[in-house]
Structure formats: structure tokens, C-alpha cells
Specification:
This protein has about 280 residues and is α+β, with helices and mostly antiparallel strands. It is built from seven helices and ten strands. A five-stranded mixed beta barrel has the order 1-2-3-5-4. A hairpin with a 2-residue loop joins β1 and β2.
Length: about 280
């Protein structure tokens, strides 16, 4: 794990040290010139050195026009097919990059950019030298996959999570103050509850059950009335795993209190962005 973090550190946080990318590496590049044979690009992470994307590596099958697939100024996630160290020629491929590789690379780059901005803010606040910042990055990356992961963990759990890194109180206070302003990413899973109670005061019973659920779970759970017998249940958490973990006992509790004298059903709502089925329970 530490070896992977060291590799990531050298490639991402200090990319300028490496003059050329490695064969098989996934990179981000900007299209700078297009001709009949393909497109020339500049590699964003390698001091804008130039690479070439041949027409045969743009998309599967026969391509009539390169312009149909790439535009000047557009950024693309590419695979490094070959590197000639002497001539500094870099051959690239677009068609060999999977959707998963593209998604991971874009997320990785986004984290790097966010982490870089936070590091710059910390540096400016207490006038840290570039050498001091480099040492701080190294310490954070000895424990986390990226400096941004470190900052979001601090924002979520407090400065105590890096107490073992032996940083000065001044630096820790500045990091803590800066991280407290980070807006943590959140995900939402939703579903429709169909619940009824046959008792004469069934509506009041349902209202009390749902009110207690929301009260006991504070900001992470929302329940809104759609129209009898339907209610929308929403779970908001930093990631899908914790959202799923929160959802299951809530559904179990509602079902337990309802099913003796009524009907319970829950159906997960789908979205265009998230096709996953988190939980489906019915009786």
C-alpha cells in the first residue's frame, strides 16, 4: 500500500520531475491540432509535452472524419501506447481506454486539483516554503492515497486523525481551520414507502413511527408525504456503502411496527445517474 502511495505521489504531485509518461499509463491530454491522420495533443500532467493520437486509435472501425470524434481544445483521457525516449515521441490511444479507466482518471485528477488548492491556501495562511509544503504532502500521502483524501477525512472526523504525523501545532490548527470549510461530497438514495394501518387511529400511528425515525437519525434521514399511502424515504450519506448500511435497519424497524396491523412495501427509486438497486423489501 505504501509503495502504491509513493508511486502516486511521484506521478501526480510531482509530475514535472518525470519528463515522459510510461507505456501503459492513463493520461489526460488536450487536443491542439487535427489532421487527416489523427490529432496532436499536449499532455497536461507532463509539462505539456506533445503526443500523437493516430486515426486508427481514435475509435473502433473505419473513421471518415477525425473532427467527428475530437475537437481542438477538448480534453481526453488516453492510454500511452508507446514512448520513444530518444525522440520523445508519445503514441496514444483513445479507443483502448475503458469507461472505468476514464472515470477513475477523471476522479483522480479532480481530487488532485482540489487538494492542490487546499494546500496553496494553507501555504499562504502561514507562509510555508515550497520545501515545507512538499514535506507536508509526503506525510499526508504516507497515510492517505492523496492529500485531498486526507483533507476530507479531517473535515469529516477532525484533526485528531493525523495526530500521528508529528506536525507542528501551527500547521495542524491551520489545516483544521481550512478543512472545516470543505463541503463534503454526499450521496442520496431514495425509495417509496407504501404503508398503511388498519386501526382507527392508523394515520396517527404511522405519523408517530415516521417522526421517531427522522428524529432518531437527525440530518441523515428525510421522509416526505406524497399522498396516502405513499411516503418518500431519503438517506443522505458521504458514500453509498454507509447509506445502504443506514437504510436497512430503518426499513426493518418500520416494517416491524407496521406489518402486524397494516401493510408495508418499499421500492427503490432509480435515477439516470445511478442505476443501482440499493434495497427492495416488501411483505
Amino acid at each position: 500500500m505504501n509503495e502504491n502511495k509513493t508511486i502516486q505521489k511521484s506521478k501526480i504531485m510531482s509530475a514535472e520531475i518525470s519528463e515522459l509518461p510510461e507505456k501503459g499509463e492513463i493520461v489526460i491530454a488536450t487536443i491542439i491540432k487535427i489532421n487527416d491522420h489523427g490529432a496532436y495533443v499536449s499532455l497536461d500532467e507532463y509539462n505539456k509535452i506533445q503526443g500523437f493520437l493516430h486515426i486508427s486509435e481514435i475509435a473502433p472501425g473505419w473513421i471518415r472524419s477525425v473532427n467527428k470524434y475530437v475537437k481542438i481544445g477538448e480534453k481526453k483521457v488516453l492510454l500511452v501506447k508507446n514512448v520513444n525516449a530518444k525522440s520523445k515521441d508519445v503514441d496514444l490511444s483513445l479507443k483502448q481506454v475503458s469507461n472505468d479507466q476514464k472515470k477513475k482518471k477523471l476522479m483522480h485528477t479532480k481530487k488532485y486539483e482540489k487538494g492542490k488548492k487546499i494546500i496553496q491556501t494553507i501555504q499562504e495562511k502561514i507562509n510555508m516554503t515550497d520545501s515545507d509544503i512538499e514535506k507536508l504532502e509526503e506525510r499526508l500521502c504516507s497515510k492517505y492515497d492523496s492529500v485531498y483524501d486526507a483533507f476530507t477525512d479531517i473535515a469529516s472526523k477532525g484533526i485528531e486523525v493525523i495526530s500521528d504525523l508529528e506536525l507542528s501545532e501551527n500547521i495542524k490548527e491551520t489545516i483544521n481551520e481550512t478543512c472545516s470549510k470543505i463541503k463534503l461530497p454526499m450521496v442520496e438514495i431514495r425509495g417509496i414507502l407504501e404503508i398503511s394501518n388498519k386501526k382507527s387511529n392508523g394515520v396517527e400511528i404511522i405519523k408517530k413511527i415516521l417522526t421517531n425515525i427522522v428524529k432518531n437519525n437527525k440530518e441523515s434521514v428525510k421522509i416526505t408525504y406524497i399522498g396516502a399511502p405513499k411516503y418518500r424515504l431519503s438517506i443522505i450519506k458521504p458514500d453509498f456503502k454507509s447509506a445502504e448500511k443506514k437504510l436497512k435497519p430503518i426499513l426493518t424497524e418500520i416494517k416491524k411496527q407496521i406489518e402486524k396491523k397494516g401493510r408495508f412495501n418499499f421500492m427503490r427509486e432509480y435515477s439516470k445517474k445511478n442505476k443501482r438497486v440499493i434495497i427492495e423489501v416488501s411483505t
